[in-house]
């Protein structure tokens, strides 16, 4: 699994150099199915984490985004 992840990472980096559109081609996924897939993986990781197999739960991009957004909202509120 570790190896696969590394392999995917290098493929993505190469694709990013060529341009974003090819990133999706690498995964053979359009963004919607990629998001669905990501959620599925996250769910599996979470259940592993509950079983105490995985130390750090990998967060989905969406979760990261919403966390960032929330902290920004808090900052705005503090400024007011």
Write up what this structure looks like.
- The chain is an all-alpha fold.
- The protein has one domain.
- It is built from four helices and no strands.
- The longest helix is centred in the middle third of the chain and has 20 residues.
- The chain starts with a helix and ends with a helix.
End-to-end distance: 48 Å
Beta-strand content bin: under 5%
Number of helical stretches of at least 4 residues: 4
Tell how many strands the DSSP assignment holds: 0
**How would a textbook summarize the main sheet?**
none
State the domain count.
1
Structural class: mainly alpha
Low-pLDDT sequence parts: none
Using only C-alpha atoms, the radius of gyration works out to 16 Å
Features:
80 residues, mainly alpha, 4 helices, 80% helix, extended
Which SSEs are present, and which pair or pack?
Layout: H1 2-18, H2 20-27, H3 31-50, H4 61-79
Helix pairs in contact: 1-2
What's this, in brief?
This protein has 80 residues and is an all-alpha fold. 80% of the residues lie in helices and 0% in strands. It has helices at residues 2-18, 20-27, 31-50, 61-79.
